[in-house]
Design goal:
The structure is a single chain. The protein is an alpha/beta fold. About 50% of the residues lie in helices and about 15% in strands. A 7-stranded mixed sheet has the order 2-1-3-4-5-6-7, with helices on both faces. Strands 8-9 form a two-stranded antiparallel sheet. Helix 3 runs parallel beside helix 4, helix 7 packs across helix 10 and helix 8 packs antiparallel against helix 9. The protein is globular.
Length: about 300
C-alpha cells in the first residue's frame, strides 16, 4: 500500500526503509529538503491515492499538534492520520474529535524499538476504530517483528502488535510500557553501582554479561547494558544525567488518579530528577538537620572540609 510519512529522523527514516523493503510505497516529508520526497503537506496529499494514510513521526507536543491540525485541513473524508510519536493519550482524544468533524480517521500508535527497529521490527500498541486500524494494518504488519512460532511451526498471534482499544489506548499502553522501562533501567543501574562499589567483584562487566543467559532478569535492556559496558567498562565517558521524555511522569500521574500503587516506577522517575542536581538542595537540608540535632559534621561548599558546629 501507499503511506505518507511525516518526519524522517532516526525512527521515521528507519521505518520508511523497513516499509520499502516490505514492498510498500512510502512518500516522505521532512523539514530537511535532502530527506523528503515532496516539499509540502498539500503535495504529500496529491502524491497519495485516496483513501490516504498519513503517519506522523515528529516530536510529541506542539510539533505533533501543529502537524495533525494542518493535516486535518489538507486531507479528505475517508483518509486516516496515524500519530506514531510519544504523544499523551489525552492529545489523541482531542485530535480524534477534530478529525472526526471532517470525516478523517485517527489512529494513535505507540511504537517501541528505537534505532534497532529497522532490523528487529517495532512493537506496536494501537488505538482507534476497527475500520481505521484495518486501513493501516498492512503497514503495522510490515513494521512489527516476525511472529514467534510454536513447536509445530504455527505463528503465535498477539506478539509485537495489539489493537489495544479506542483512540488513546495505544499511547496509554506505550506510556505504561515506558514507565516500566524506567523502573527496569533504574534496577539495572543500581545493581551495576553496587557491583562496582565493592572490591570483591573483579569483573563487573563479566558479571552483568553472565546474567543475559538463563537468568530470570535477562532482557533486551540488559543486553544493551552489556553493550555499553563493552564500549566503556567503567562508564567514564558518560555523564550521570538522565532526561525523562514525559511518559514516566504521565504514568505516575495516572497511578495517582486511579489509586494504583506504583512505588518502583515513581522512585525511578524521582531518581532521574536527582541525577540533574549537582548539589542537591534536599541533601543540603538533610545535612543541615543532621548538624542541628546531632552535631554531625557537615562539608563546606568550597573547602570540602568537615566542620563541627561551634
Amino acid at each position: 500500500m501507499q503511506l505518507g510519512l511525516i518526519g524522517l529522523g532516526k525512527m521515521g527514516g528507519n521505518m520508511a526503509e523497513r516499509l520499502r523493503r516490505a514492498g510498500h510505497e512510502v512518500v516522505g516529508f521532512d523539514h530537511h529538503p535532502e530527506k523528503r520526497d515532496v516539499d509540502s503537506l498539500p503535495a504529500l496529499k496529491e502524491a497519495l491515492s485516496a483513501p490516504r494514510v498519513v503517519w506522523v513521526m515528529v516530536p510529541a507536543g506542539e510539533a505533533t499538534r501543529a502537524t495533525v491540525k494542518e493535516l486535518s485541513e489538507v486531507l479528505e473524508p475517508g483518509d486516516v492520520i496515524v500519530d506514531g510519536g510519544n504523544s499523551k493519550y489525552t492529545d489523541d482524544q482531542i485530535h480524534d474529535v477534530m478529525c472526526r468533524e471532517k470525516g478523517i480517521g485517527y489512529v494513535d500508535a505507540g511504537v517501541s524499538g528505537g534505532v534497532w527497529g529497522l532490523e528487529n521490527g517495532y512493537a506496536l500498541m494501537v488505538g482507534g476504530t476497527r475500520e481505521d486500524v484495518a486501513k493501516v494494518q498492512p503497514v503495522f504488519d510490515a513494521l512489527k517483528p516476525p511472529s514467534p512460532k510454536d513447536e509445530s511451526g504455527q505463528e503465535l498471534p498477539g506478539a509485537g502488535f495489539v489493537h489495544a482499544g479506542p483512540v488513546g489506548a495505544g499511547h496509554f499502553s506505550k506510556m505504561v510500557h515506558n514507565g516500566i522501562e524506567y523502573a527496569m533501567m533504574q534496577a539495572y543501574g543500581e545493581g551495576y553501582e553496587l557491583l562496582a562499589a565493592v572490591d570483591l567483584i573483579e569483573d563487573v562487566p563479566g558479571v552483568v554479561k553472565s546474567w543475559t543467559q538463563g537468568t530470570v532478569i535477562r532482557s533486551w535492556l540488559l543486553d544493551l547494558l552489556v553493550r555499553a559496558l563493552e564500549e566503556d567498562p567503567s562508564l567514564e565517558k558518560i555523564s550521570g544525567y538522565a532526561e525523562d521524555s514525559g511518559e514516566g511522569r504521565w504514568t505516575v500521574e495516572q497511578a495517582i488518579e486511579n489509586a494504583v500503587p506504583m512505588p518502583a516506577i515513581a522512585a525511578s522517575l524521582f531518581a532521574r530528577f536527582s541525577s540533574r542536581q549537582e548539589d542537591s538542595p534536599t541533601m543540603k537540608a538533610v545535612a543541615a538537620l543532621r548538624q542541628q540535632f546531632g552535631g554531625h559534621a557537615v562539608h563546606a561548599v568550597r573547602e570540602q572540609e568537615a566542620e563541627r558546629p561551634a
